[in-house]
Amino acid sequence: MFFPGKGTFLAGIMDSPALYELLTGSFGYGAAQIMAVRFRNHPPKHGIRVPSAALKDLTTELLRACGMDPEGSGLVAEHLVSCDLRCVFSHGTKALEKYLPLLREGIVNPRPKVRLEREGGATAVIDGDGGLGYHACNIGMTLAVARARQFGVGAVTTFHHHHFGAAGNWTRMALEEGCVALAVSSHRFQPERGEVVAAAAGSSPISIAVPTRDQPPLVLDMGATFLPRNEDLMAEFPGAFLKALGIGSVNVVLGGLLAGVWRTEGLPPASPWNADQGSFLTAWEISRFMELDTFMAEVDRHIGQARQMKPMSPFERAELAGGMEFAWEKENTQSGIPIGDGHRNLLTDLADAMGIAVPWEAYEHTRF
Known about the structure:
Blueprint: H1 17-26, H2 31-38, E1 47-50, H3 52-65, H4 70-85, H5 96-104, E2 115-120, E3 123-127, H6 133-151, E4 153-161, H7 167-175, E5 179-187, E6 206-210, E7 218-222, H8 231-236, H9 238-257, E8 277-285, H10 292-307, H11 323-335, E9 337-340, H12 341-353
Parallel strand pairs: 3-4
Antiparallel strand pairs: 1-9, 2-3, 4-8, 5-6, 5-8, 6-7
């Protein structure tokens, strides 16, 4: 049972007395700790509301101060703020805390010259030139959709780049073009002989998105970890770990090995950048399989019926994957993005360190 938001792998714990007792008793988790992890991507209870344009301006300025050009900083800022609009805060502007030092210190290329390394038929391979994965994946999904228009399906791999953000960023690009899409990513790592095999899957992300006409689009966006790795939990709930291992292993192969994260030209010392990640991006044109209007009507019917079912406890609404993010994005576009006090302080510290003014005072009247 999973909450429709990235990284919320403990959703549904309150519905499982055995798991709740195991976590609170054997492992000492408090109810508040469980709820905090469960709602990691959820609107904050206290903070201010900031228009997306103002937050994007600040984010763009921070990225440019670390060496990014106007086009690249605008692209990354757009995706980060879009995540905040959907309350996917883990992959929104909070990520600047990790990105900015890497860019500033020359560990990640601030101005990558992304290039199309090879292409043929419905496929292509993109070299990210040591930058953040946003640059390569934006081009990658654009190409995948174009190939889907031409061939019915398009598939692109990207390599030699750093973090690519939320997997849902890229499948949502295809939604806007009326395509079904998949995006997976992984990084360069070696399974350690002494570790439990569950670690072989990492937490590599996957997103699958399906367009709709009247209902919220169906957007799965998740990591491959369901529960904390612990021998007692593994013994109690082996199915969760086996499924996570299966999904994660596929993500590692498609988004990592097939993408080329072990190619020598992307490894030190051939590459001066911390560029250990890759991705596999695909798009399908629905009309090659059935009439687009018929498909969307069927998907709308299914999602609409599901939303009329009883919600899972303790939620007040029945939503499929992506449903809550859709509602939050609509609300926050109108009312402003809810920025919690911790989130605001993080961005303030980053801005202060670079002598950049923050816009919070203008929105103090929105405090909640």
